[in-house]
Protein 1
Amino acid sequence: MSGEMRWQDWINALLGVVLFITPFVFGDTSQTAAAWTAYVGGVLLFVFGAGSLLFRWNPTIEYLPLIEGVLLFLAPWVLGFSGITAMAWSAWVIGVLASVNAGSVLVMGGNLTGRSAASGEQSR
C-alpha cells in the first residue's frame, strides 16, 4: 500500500459519478448500450478512485482506470452509439480524462518509466 493520498484518485471518483449520471442529464436512458456503458463505466471509475483513496492501493492499480479510459473512448464505435452525440461525447471526453489522469499517476509514480519519482533511480 502506498501511504499518500493522490489528487488523481479524487478525480477518478468524480469522473465516475459524472459518467454515471450522464444518461439522466441528457435524457438518454432509453439507449441501452449507451446507458449501460455509462452506468458500468461510472461505477468502475468510482470504485477505482474511491478504493485508492480509502485503501491507499499501490499506484500500479492505476493501470485499471487507464485501460477503462481507453475502453470508454472506444465504446461508442464498438457498441454502436456514436450517433447519439451527447452520450458518445461524454464517453469520449471522460475516457480521455480518465486515461490521462491514470497515466499521470503512473508516470509520477515511476511505473511507466521504470524510475522512482522521488529518487530518480532505476527500479528493479
Protein 2
Amino acid sequence: MAQADPEIKIFTVDEANALLPSVKKIVARIQKSHKAVSRYRDAAKKAAESADRGGGGIAGGQHYAVVLSELTIALSELEALGVQLKDFERGLIDFPSLRDGRMVLLCWQMGEGDELEWWHDLDAGFAGRTPL
C-alpha cells in the first residue's frame, strides 16, 4: 500500500468538490495574471539580459510588477490549499487523492462542471483521465 507524503494534502472527492468554488476563483485570477505577465515575456527577457550592463527597465514596468505580484499571490493561495496547477492556459488542476490505497490525482479544468468528474494515475497525466 502506497504511503502518502506527509507534505501533500490528500483530498477526498467530497473535500475537493467542496473546495472547487473557491479554487475556480483563484484559477481564474491565475489565468488573468498569467496572460498579462505573458505579454511582457520578450521585454522582460531583454531587460534581464541588459541588467548586468546597467539597463534592465521595460516599458510598463510598474504594471508588469503588479501583475507578476498578483500571479505569485494567487499561485501561493492555490499551493497553500494543496491544489496542483498543471496548465496555466487551460486552468488544469489536480487534487491529490487516494484510490484503492494508492495515490492518484482528481482532475479538473476551467470550463468543466461544478464537481470533479475525472481522476488519473500519477504517471498517466491528462490523457489517462478516467471518469470517477
Protein 3
Amino acid sequence: MENAGDDFKNRSLWQRSGYAVNGIFAGLNREGSLRLELAVAAAALLLLAWLRPPAVWWALGVLMIAAVLAAELINSAIEALADHLHPTLHREIRVVKDMAAGAILVLNLAALIVLVLLLATRLG
C-alpha cells in the first residue's frame, strides 16, 4: 500500500525545493517576527559589508542569521500546527509554544553576543 509521503519523495528536487520556498513565503506572510528578523538580518549583512571583517566573521554572521531564521520558521510551523490541532487554549500546547519561542530567544541572544564580539574586535 502506498503512503501519501511516497508521492512527495518521488518528485524532483526542483519541485520539492518549491515547497520549501512556499513555506518561507508563507512564514513571511503570516509572521511579523520573521519579517522583523529578516530586516535585522539585512542590517547585519550591511554592517558586515561596512566593517569588512575577515571571512570567519562573515561565516559566523551568515550562520547565525540562517539559524535564527530557520528556527523562527520551525517555531511558526509548530505554532500553526498546534493551533490547527487544538484551537482552544490548552496548557500543554502553551508550554510547547513557549519552549519553541525560548529556542528563538536563545538564538537571538547568541546572535547579539556575536555582534558585540565583532564590534569589539573591529572598533575596539
Protein 4
Amino acid sequence: MLVGAPDSSRKDIRLTTQQTYLANAASARADAEAADLANVRERCLRSEAAWNAMAARVQQSEDLRARRLAEAAKTAA
C-alpha cells in the first residue's frame, strides 16, 4: 500500500500488477508450447498456473475491497 497516495493510484498499481501477472502467464504458456522437452513444458505450465493464480488473487482482493467500500458508504449514508 502506498502511504498518502490517492485511491486511484493504488487501483492503477493493482491493475498494472494484475496485467503483469497475466502477461507472465501468457509468456509461460508460449514457452510451454515451444518447449521440446516434457519436463521443461511441465515446468512452464506450472509457472503459467502460478501466475494465473496470483492474478486471480489480485482480482479477488480488488472485488472484496470494492464490496467493503460500498458497504461502508451505505452505512455512512
